[in-house]
Amino acid sequence: QAPGDTFWDIIRKGAEAASAKDNVTLEYSNDPDATKQAQLIQAAIEGQGVALGSGFVIEGDGYIVTNNHVVDHAETVKIRLSDDREFDAKVIGTDKQTDLALLKIDAKSDLPVLELGDSDHVRVGEDVIAVGNPFGLGGTVTRGIVSAMARDINAGPYVDFIQTDAAINRGNSGGPLLDLDGKVIGVNSAIYSPNGGSVGVG
Questions:
Q1: Alpha carbons 33 and 149: distance in angstroms, whole number
Q2: pLDDT 10s digit of each residue in the chain, 202 long?
Q3: Hey, which residues does 186 pair with through a beta bridge?
Q4: What's the CA angle centered on 48, arms 41 and 39, to 5 degrees?
């Protein structure tokens, strides 16, 4: 945050850091030719074993973080960057207990990265930004506040969730939750919803 920044400047910088440069769309499919977004969405609707998710670059040589459940059981994983370049990705490691996965692509150029923040310093009521690929709409940015900290949803022994009312929907999984300095303070992982869409509990 630079001296004199308005609230809009802070939101814009955080959004650009995640969306214009670092937002990643993850696609996996049993059909390697099903790479177009419309085909993927239609296949997902028809239950053809296709999933969409999100992620973010943490090292410029192509290391990407997402959720384990986004890539779990995937036969192939494809990455689409915000500039529409597509890559086959290798799953480097996964951890079901924390629902995290590390992927690697060969981008052949140094990628912009998101800086990791410190969620221990986050307070209830602070503004946050969620970036991701809901319903295949890559680069979507939503804003909300931290609704609660250390939320236990019985997802494992090592996971205390940050609850937010920023809109998070199917396809947001694996995307970054940012503070207003554009630093990653969480990974969008789950929503509570009676109808499958965002109701302000993510």
A1: 42
A2: 555 555 555 555 544 444 433 445 454 444 444 444 444 444 444 445 566 889 999 999 999 999 998 888 888 899 888 888 899 999 999 998 888 999 999 988 889 899 999 999 999 999 999 998 877 777 788 999 998 887 776 666 667 788 888 888 878 888 999 998 999 999 988 755 444 544 444 4
A3: 177
A4: 30
Cβ atoms 35, 27 nearer than 8 A:
yes
Residue 140 pairs with which residues in a beta bridge? 132
Q: What's the token pair of residue 83? A: 């500039």
Distance CA 42, CA 55 (A): 22
Please tell me the distance from the alpha carbon of residue 139 to that of residue 104, in angstroms, as a whole number.
20
* Contact indicator for 173, 160 with CB cutoff of 8 Å: no
Q: pTM for the full model?
A: 0.71
What is each CA distance from 45 to 92, 157, 167, 194, 195, in whole angstroms? 29, 33, 21, 19, 15
Name beta bridge partners: 177. 130, 186
How far, CA to CA in Å, does 101 sit from each of 27, 62, 70, 157?
A: 14, 14, 8, 17
Catalytic positions: 69, 99, 173
Q: What is the distance between the alpha carbons of residues 20 and 82, in angstroms, rounded to a whole number?
A: 6
